[in-house]
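Teaching assistant's notes for section 4

Start the section by putting this record on the projector. Ask students to predict, before seeing the second block, whether Metallo-beta-lactamase domain-containing protein will look compact or extended. Collect guesses on the board.
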Amino acid sequence: MRQLPPEPEIEHLVTAGDPDPDGRPVESNVWIIANEDEAVVIDPAHDAELIADRLGDRQVLAILCTRAEPDQVEAVLSLAAITGAPIHLHPADLFRWPADDRPDEELRDGQRLVVGGLYLHVRHTPGVTPGSVSIYLPALDAVFTGQTLDADGPGAGADPQTVRDRLLDLPPDTAVHAGHGPSSTIGELVARV
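Reveal the predicted structure now:
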């Protein structure tokens, strides 16, 4: 009898980019949803080689961008070249894509993607950018919010109403994995917002 691969897990990697105005390197969270054979990468930033090393020989099914940000695009394009994975971005952020190489696929509100038998649900959460999205993974009680929502609440430029309507309605135990900084839960954030 064929054994099924293990259920995907969430892996976390922090990459560092150019210094901010205070001279500190900008750190970004890279999220990998993977089992031993397949992976999806969310918001790869700064260091494609480091991310590729972490992925090993797993097949990368997709690179998901929660927004188009200049600090991510170079690493996104490099990781796509290394892995052969398609890049996914909401079409409202295409004007922000500073490269001649356009993303391969669109992320749309309500879209469902599958990795390792688990569904990832796309929620359009405009505010930080017009095409910002959050990726909800109910089977692992997690949402990946880019810069829309972090451990302190709505991110800079995020629309508070969008955050309330599109994210704070998730179950309280849902882990919030942001593009920068520590993770939180919906329950903790509802208590603060």
